[in-house]
Design a protein that fits this description.
The complex is a heterodimer of chains A (280) and B (240). Chain A has two domains: 238 residues, P-loop containing nucleotide triphosphate hydrolases (Rossmann fold), CATH 3.40.50.300; 31 residues, no CATH class. In chain A, 32% of the residues lie in helices and 23% in strands. Chain A has nine helices and eleven strands. In chain A, strand 8, helix 7 and strand 9 form a beta-alpha-beta unit. In chain A, 36% of the residues are buried. The C terminus of chain A is likely disordered. Chain B contains eight helices and ten strands. In chain B, strand 9 and strand 10 form a beta hairpin. The chains are: A alpha/beta (280), B alpha/beta (240). At the A-B interface, loops of A face helix 6, helix 7 and helix 8 of B.
């Protein structure tokens, strides 16, 4: 079910720390595209996968600068957007779900207020229409109207992530970018939340760009995987083919996960010479 | 199982209760928990967040003193509301989840490692500290660095080195790899497996990740709502 033209086109995207000649390149000429499908960007911390999504969303923090030959979402050239254009685009046609719902929600406003604001900002609906949309959305993510009166700190991690998901899908985006959406959740909840995301994405015919460090998770839920290492895509394959990838980095990432079957064995590690790494 | 010859080294917990808060708002975190960990085994505890697994570890570490019940650590019967004294202080060591928070940010790695040795009047502390660094796979040149100059995996290695310096009989590990990348986690798990035969001790590992438990442990307990829900032996763990 691939659309004729891709939803998102990224061509030679680079992210640098500052603009001087000595600036460090963190993301290095990355190219990929996303159709109405589930694509995963996999890698370890420091690989640049999160900064890639921030660059796509126009959310890079100050000293970091993005440059690209092409950065296009549907028909919109993302490289030419001003702050107002971004405000219209984000949260309506292009949505982002982050790792920890407790940081993504406003701590002093009720869930109901924040959901309502999301609809109000992106469309002219009456109060009753907004309420109707919110109730339908809550139902889709498996919540009831009971959460509307709660503050974010009163939500558990799993409920919180459902609230964020509801908020992001309220305006019917074409592309959802999910940056480690389940890493802050209990193991038992991870599958539930990802299943929900994938189900909603496929019933709505949306595209999903999932950022993850968990190859097993990606193999289960995605169509395609892009493996990142130090700012570059080093391997690209169908997600189901990840276990059989011949690339050494992908192989190490796949097999360094411990389980009952690895008891008594040495797990493969990537970097045996422990040099000083930059923190963060 | 009673009165076996190695009972002196076992850890026995009977009817352990921990409550936080008082009166109507009291919440029972550990609820009549019974557990025996055999001397020298690597024992895993897993369960969802809030099941009490970290609290159990903190009780055994002597950090959480407000408990009731019966705990026997080796030949010591623990007294209620009393900090560890004497040999127990050396015998029980703990590695925490967050390597960013468990090392003093303004102390060099060397100072972090030398301090417990000086406290316990162990001769030639600097040399012992450098040997400990080497044992966990870190170069001696790191000794003069500060924790924030190390990666997460390196920091956790320092925390493990520090815990082993005093040759503990019981090492408690609270989510030692959850803050790490998968490959850094693999390195720490390999290190623990290498250290086990060289340091005869009992290991209790808490993790929310069944894979980590199944990789490392001889036996494990699944916790829920402050109780042990299920005990798993090695054969059952291999199915994970």
């Amino acid at each position: 079910m691939t659309a004729p033209s891709p939803l998102l086109v990224v061509r030679e995207l680079s992210v640098r720390n500052g603009s001087s000649a000595a600036a460090r390149t963190i993301v290095d000429r990355l190219s990929f595209s996303v159709h109405a499908e589930r694509v995963a960007l996999v890698g370890e911390s420091g690989s640049g996968k999160s900064l890639t999504t921030r660059a796509i969303m126009g959310l890079l923090p100050a000293p970091l600068m993005a440059s690209a030959a092409e950065l296009r979402f549907d028909a919109t050239n993302l490289l030419e957007l001003g702050p107002r254009d971004w405000a219209v685009l984000r949260g309506s046609r292009l949505a982002l779900v982050l790792q920890d719902p407790r940081h993504a929600l406003n701590p002093v406003q009720s869930v109901g207020h924040q959901l309502d604001e999301m609809v109000r900002l992106h469309g002219a609906y009456s109060r009753a229409e907004r309420r109707e949309r919110i109730e339908a959305m809550l139902q889709a993510v498996g919540l009831t109207v009971r959460v509307l009166g709660l503050l974010p700190q009163q939500l558990s991690g799993g409920i919180g992530q459902r609230v964020v998901l509801a908020m992001m899908l309220l305006n019917g985006p074409q592309l959802l970018i999910a940056d480690e959406p389940t890493s802050a959740l209990d193991v038992a909840l991870r599958d539930q939340v990802l299943e929900l995301i994938c189900e909603l994405v496929s019933t709505r015919g949306m595209g999903l760009l999932l950022i993850s460090h968990d190859l097993q998770q990606v193999a289960r839920y995605c169509d395609r995987a892009l493996v990142m290492y130090s700012g570059r895509i080093v391997d690209e394959c169908a997600a189901a083919a990840l276990p059989h990838s011949t690339h050494p980095y992908t192989r190490a990432l796949w097999s360094c996960r411990p389980s009952g079957r690895t008891y008594g064995t040495e797990l493969p590690v990537l970097d045996p010479n422990w040099q000083i790494e930059e923190p963060g | 199982m009673r009165a076996t010859q190695n009972q002196g080294g076992d850890i026995q917990i009977r009817d352990l209760q921990v409550e936080f808060g008082a009166g109507q708002r009291a919440r029972r975190v550990l609820d009549a928990l019974d557990l025996t960990v055999v001397d020298g085994e690597t024992f895993g505890i897993f369960g969802p967040s809030g099941c009490g697994k970290s609290t159990l570890l903190r009780v055994l570490a002597g950090i959480e003193l407000h408990w009731s019940g019966y705990i026997r650590l080796f030949e010591h019967t623990l007294e209620l509301r009393t900090s560890y004294r004497g040999s127990l202080r050396r015998a029980v060591q703990m590695v925490f989840q967050d390597p960013y928070a468990s090392l003093h940010p303004r102390h060099t790695i060397e100072r972090v490692l030398v301090e417990p040795l000086q406290v316990h009047r162990i001769p030639r502390p600097r040399r012992v500290a450098l040997e400990a660094l080497e044992e966990v796979g870190l170069p001696a040149t790191l000794a003069h660095r500060y924790p924030q100059q190390l990666s997460g995996g390196q920091r956790q290695r320092v925390a493990i080195a520090r815990a082993l310096l005093l040759k503990p009989r019981l090492l408690l590990l609270d989510e030692p790899t959850s803050a790490l990348d998968l490959s850094a986690q693999a390195g720490i798990l390999n290190l623990l497996n290498r250290l086990k035969p060289r340091h005869p001790m009992t290991l209790i590992l808490v993790s929310h990740d069944r894979g980590v438990i199944a990789h490392l442990c001889d036996r494990a307990a699944q916790m829920r709502n402050g109780r042990i829900e299920q005990l798993l032996d090695r054969a059952e763990l291999s199915q994970e």
